[in-house]
């Protein structure tokens, strides 16, 4: 069995190319839309072969992470290990190097002589793996530690024979009880000194986080790492659990991975269960963001059935967002005391959520509906009071105005309550005026009666 680091050992900045030797002047260039492929005389056909697939790999990786690194990316094809070691002297201390990535130079390196026994998919994986390092470094502001860098780059690879070798090495590490603590993966020297353990272990850690929490959450981990003091802080902020607890969960999960779970990969057979769970929870915005990224990725693959399912789920998330918008508008209408419009919007929102089979907002919508109904009833009573006032039925109008004012006060609608109270005050004033008028009319009647009696007596005297 080949040792893992004899297949892939990504050195990142450790092996950044030294100043060019004289022989470096013989580089030729083949441009594609995404890459500047550098090769030497005699390797033009090989450069052409890489040109056939590298842009597709770029699009895959960009879609996976939702991040397109600047183009062109340099892809330097060293013809031999000796030529590579002349420019990278530190590489002489490490055996079996196939490729490395230098994100600061925006360069991917492949040593062609080391790829002779690789399958076509493994050759493509070299580029996939290294380009992932560049993208992950950019997204995380180069704060993603070496262990997670290597685990992530391996996870993005397509299924190939070396996966079985990695799993075999991991089984041996488990059997010999030599697994590294997660803290060890924070140390570049530890990782590269024991690649037979660190590489398959880091792959399994990433697989665990993806399977347990989704690939979308792993992307969040990268962006959060850019704003964190270290991997522990980034893990806790992303997953809501202490790193030690995550490590314990990973160890409990590891037997299922070694038992065959390693064949599951969210990118080779995209797992939509995370988005489905978000939809079941009524978290439509989060599901929508997850599915948009998934669909962008799936369109670069041949997973047509999964793509169709993702598009259907995206449509469901959009209906959910529309239902949420109706509920928000209903709340806003209530706050604006537009009770009739609120009642209409609540009805629309209820139908939208019912079509989704979502009951999460039933209680809130019921409260909105009840409030809208009370507001509508209060408005009807106030309108009745105004109608009674116009027909001078002041006592009845005043009672209705009092009822409307009390209803609006209970709703917290001070403006409408003040309107009802103002009507009551107006009615009180009118009743006072009416009372005075009636009193004066009565007094006038008494005076008139007295005058009539006086006049009658005077007539009798005559």
CATH topology group of the largest domain: Zincin-like
Distance between the termini: 151 Å
* Total domain units: 3
- Largest sheet, spatial ordering of strands: 1-2-3-5-4
Per DSSP, what share of the residues sits in E-state strands of 2 or more residues? 5-15%
How does the major sheet shape up?
A: 5 strands, mixed
Global mean pLDDT:
86
Helix coverage percent of residues? 55-70%
Low-confidence stretches: 1-22
CATH architecture of the largest domain: 2-Layer Sandwich
Give the H and E element order. Answer: EEHEHEEHHHHHHHHHHHHHHH
How many strand segments? 5
Give me the number of helical elements.
17
Write down the Rg. Answer: 39 Å
Structure classification: mainly alpha
Principal-axis shape equals elongated
Question: Can you describe what's shown?
Answer:
This protein has 462 residues and is mainly α. The chain is built from 17 helices and five strands. It has helices spanning 44-65, 81-87, 120-139, 146-156, 162-175, 188-193, 195-213, 215-225, 231-239, 243-258, 273-280, 284-298, 304-335, 339-356, 362-390, 394-411, 414-461; strands at 28-31, 35-39, 73-78, 99-102, 107-111. It has a five-stranded mixed sheet with strand order 1-2-3-5-4. Strand 4 and strand 5 form a beta hairpin. Helix 1 (44-65) crosses helix 3 (120-139) and helix 3 (120-139) crosses helix 4 (146-156).
